[in-house]
């Protein structure tokens, strides 16, 4: 996989999880655009937040196992993404749906950039260690 390729270019677990994250955001965007029920949108949003939390925890655990020197910076990036997802959740709960669409777009782009830069850097680090 290269930084310019799609996040899910290969079959390993992390690529699969990245694909699930992006798919959940896209499903949410489409659901909002189609005016799906509040209950359905909330369910997808909760899945996105929960899945993202689990993915970040497993990624950070893997980084600890590999003594990754950029762990602190990577954790800070994860914290920012989690904060953004909580903002989406708060605005959704208060009915600010137009703001939610904008924030989701930002979250998606942020996540794609993170996968292509920060997560990719960790992959290179692991590959160098195991060569
Ligand atoms: Fe990450
Ligand atoms: Fe990731």
| 3D shape | elongated
Mean pLDDT across residues: 89
Number of strands: 0
The separation of the N and C termini measures 16 Å
Bound molecules: fe (ii) ion
Task: Describe the protein.
Helix content is 81%, strand content 0%. The protein is mainly α. The protein has one domain: Up-down Bundle (Four Helix Bundle (Hemerythrin (Met), subunit A)). The longest helix has 34 residues, at 97-130. The chain is elongated, with a radius of gyration of 15 Å. Bound molecules: fe (ii) ion (2 copies). The site of one fe (ii) ion has 6 residues, from α3 and α4. Residues 59, 74, 78, 114, 118-119 line the site of one fe (ii) ion.
What's the short story on this structure?
With 131 residues, the protein is an all-alpha fold.
Task: List the topology elements.
Layout (H helix, E strand, L loop, with lengths): L12 H21 L4 H28 L5 H23 L3 H34 L1
The protein binds fe (ii) ion (2 copies).
The site of one fe (ii) ion (FE2) has 6 residues, from helix 3 and helix 4.
Output the keywords:
4 helices; disordered N terminus; binds fe (ii) ion; Four Helix Bundle (Hemerythrin (Met), subunit A); mainly alpha; elongated
């Amino acid at each position: 996989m290269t930084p310019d390729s799609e996040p899910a270019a290969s079959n390993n677990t992390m690529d699969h999880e990245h694909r699930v994250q992006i798919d959940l955001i896209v499903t949410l965007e489409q659901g909002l655009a189609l005016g799906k029920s509040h209950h359905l949108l909330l369910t997808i949003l909760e899945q996105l937040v929960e899945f993202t939390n689990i993915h970040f925890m497993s990624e950070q655990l893997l980084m600890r196992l590999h003594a990754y020197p950029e762990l602190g910076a990577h954790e800070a990036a994860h914290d920012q993404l989690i904060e953004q997802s909580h903002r989406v959740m708060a605005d959704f709960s208060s009915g600010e749906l137009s703001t939610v669409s904008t924030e989701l777009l930002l979250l998606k782009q942020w996540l794609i950039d993170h996968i292509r830069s920060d997560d990719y850097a960790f992959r290179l680090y692991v590959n160098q260690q195991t060569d």
